[in-house]
């Protein structure tokens, strides 16, 4: 598996388009882009409604229902609760028999904290979550891209099937990993996705695989002053574990990341805590390293329990692969991103962006960069994780990012949440919807491009590869966010 991950990691600039590619005709482009323009207002309204819902992973009942309603109105067939995930769904439209199956992925979960008004200064909202990663935009743009492709297929008698996968709990819940494990992409030819970002780009590269989970320590409560000898502190165990893990950092492979938060440290200082919990992530491009380092973290937990005379158990809540890039599909996506072009901001949006940039540390890219298309490359290792990666190991997959945030914004930030709740974010979502729809249509028109993508996919995975999910055989962790939800 490791050799497959390192295939083509050196950056490679986009080559000329293959000579056999069947370019979209001007009427194709006009139809698809016209449909997105027609629906742009409702796309934006949908995105901003989901921004206000701000629902955490596996709890996105309103967000999921809204996207489902839009797709039902557009004539898609619906399957809900797929892969044992109540807020997941599959919307499909088939035109005739035969033809490829092209899937578009849609996310819609928010992050704990990061609740922020849609203004360029820090103004927290009194709610549990916020769209600091822009998934309100992600789900809405993907939905309307699928709707545009469906209408184009009917108008031009294009054979095949367009699907929209509603995928919950990307933020730590590994929703797509359970879908991939359950075979829900096995009959898909190509999968498309996008993600909100600071720039417009079809560059591809490996993300970081990860395993996440919660360590729960169980001790004995007692009066912290009158009878401390009778107690065994679960919080002491958490702190001992964290200290040992921090000492590990010097001795783990380069580019490995370990993060944790203490999610339960007790209730009162004068009571020895009998229950405590710490939530861990381990990341690395190579999933075998992730497995090895997480095993070491588990040993630290066991040692902490032994040293504090407590007990510990571990619940794995997530596990995802590293994204498998596809250069053939990157060319298609990049070509269509250039067809649509960059983004233009109004003077009001420029003033918003300039005010946001005042909150940054260091120099930020110029606001004008949102009007540019960045070079498409097969690049080096990414610094984040995504459950799209699991999809990319079972079907050829390609994505893009668009400038939905103010250039220079940090991921998972209040600045992102602010931009995702106003016109700056919506403009990036419209660009994404247009690019996705053109890319899907070109692939429907060009079976040669699909064949080339599949051949590359087979080479990158390597002979004899068999997908085995890092989440194991557990059911989706539907309650992994409930402790931080609004009751």
Automatic annotation (TrEMBL):
UniProt KW Hydrolase keyword: yes
Which segments cross the bilayer? none
Q: Where do the Peptidase M20 dimerisation domain residues begin and end?
A: 211-301
What keywords does the record list, in alphabetical order?
Hydrolase
What PANTHER family does this protein's entry cite? PEPTIDASE M20, XAA-ARG DIPEPTIDASE
According to UniProt, the name of this protein is Amidohydrolase
Species assigned in the record: Sphingomonas quercus
